[in-house]
UniProtKB/TrEMBL annotation:
The keyword Membrane applies. The chain crosses the membrane at residues 12-31, 37-59, 80-106, 126-150, 157-178, 184-205, 225-244, 264-287, 307-328, 340-356, 394-416. InterPro entries: Poly_Biosynth_Transport, Polysacc_synth. It is a multi-pass membrane protein. The keyword Plastid does not apply. Keywords: Cell membrane, Membrane, Transmembrane, Transmembrane helix. GO terms for cellular component: plasma membrane. It holds the Pfam family Polysacc_synt. This is O-antigen/teichoic acid export membrane protein. Its main location: membrane. It is found in: Cell membrane. It comes from the Bacteria.
Amino acid sequence: MLLGSTSMLGARVFSVLASLISVGILTRALGREEFGLWSIIGTFVGFAGSFDFGLGQGLRNRLAAAVAQQPRDNGAEAQLFFSVLAFLTFIALVLASVLGGLALMVPWATFLGVHAPALAGPAQAASVAVIVLLALNLPLSLNVAGFLAYQDAARRGLLDVLQSAALLIGVVVLARALPIATFIGAYYVLFDGAALVSLIVFLRLRGWRVPYLHLKPILTVVREIAAPSALFWLLGIGAVALFTTDPLIAARLIGIGAAGDFSIVQKIAALLIGMHFTILTPLWSAYTHAAVTGDWRWIRRSFQRSVTVTVVLFGCGGGLAILLHGPLLKLWTGRELTDVPLMVALAVWAMLYALVNCCSVLLNGLGIIGTQLIAVCLGALVHVPLSLALGQRFGVIGVLYGTIAVVVPILAATAWRAHRVLRAAPRD
């Protein structure tokens, strides 16, 4: 468990460094609106993960529970994985066709707040291409569920390092050499290629060969995990609407160039959240395993530690970010982006987000979705109109005010549910 968390944290640190270098290169290689386009299109990645209907998370929990049982049935585990893989491959092909066609009809330049006429065509082409590529990524990303279900976070971390390195090399080689739309498309081709390599590596490590599957067994497996998967899916959609739409809202309010600047400042908080969630991620399957084996003492201790680490990490990290973000952003991007009130709001947003993640990882690992699903979906319904209204009144910081106002009751609800579960669980 510790090795897995350490390995994934190391991989995340490398990914953060690669991301920092990439952004530093792109803010200098691209125009302000071109960078904003690349940055805002990057938020599509969060939306794309919602289109697997929660089957990835449902598969992860089912595999983790199967691994904890003795004796193991490797054939049944392979059947489970390949059934979901086959179903998602079909879904991905359908989505790529349907969403690609629909995306052609969306005026992306207007939707994304593109002001430069010369960038309207590239914005349209890049948006459509990325939507298609992210749809095709759905079955490829199942490798993550597989690695984490088997608590093989060390190898997963190594593959994350290789993916980050490939994307960084792509930025270095292609950013100045290609037109912006072609560059963005090539970047996400690399993204899909790295996921394909990871999937192949996972299958080779498991020793599984691709079987010939009939439709009936595939549908049987999908139906068996459909109910919990549907809940994970709805939860994922709500989380995306809450935590990845702020740059899009900012683009609508202030234009894609200024929204790109906002995304740079927000990235400081996002990097902290990313490293934090990397530490938490192996706990998800570990909570499932411990619940199956009845080790509630370990579950309680691990959850308490995760909350303590979160408060320390985000208290110290947020304070440093508030004090040093101006000169650090200047050194990093070459731009003057000092905004102390915005950074304070981001530090609060990040702390709340991270504490929600602590509770969600516990509840998801135990298969308890109801409370957080209701809280997150209600919050998602309120978030966009509230953030738009506050953004129009207070500027870009109002977008964060809206998000914070919605996240506070979500944290209260999920923390209350986690407390009740742990209090009611058996004690040694």
